[in-house]
Amino acid sequence: MSPQAPDAQDHCPLREWGCTATASRPTWQLLSHHPTSDGDIEYCKCSCNAVVMLHQGQLAKFTAPSAGEH
Asked: How many domains does the chain have?
């Protein structure tokens, strides 16, 4: 019997944005939340050390982890 494909949540959703980290089952930490006149802004850090900015819950910016931090 061949192994089953991993669940989509097992892989970092930032791969589509160019993240090359190989962390499986990433975890997220909310760094800050700011209500603005244009909607809520949140900064979150992935367990691979990537940082994202969410605007109204949607990914708006992505900063890849530094080399060697994967």
From this structure: 1
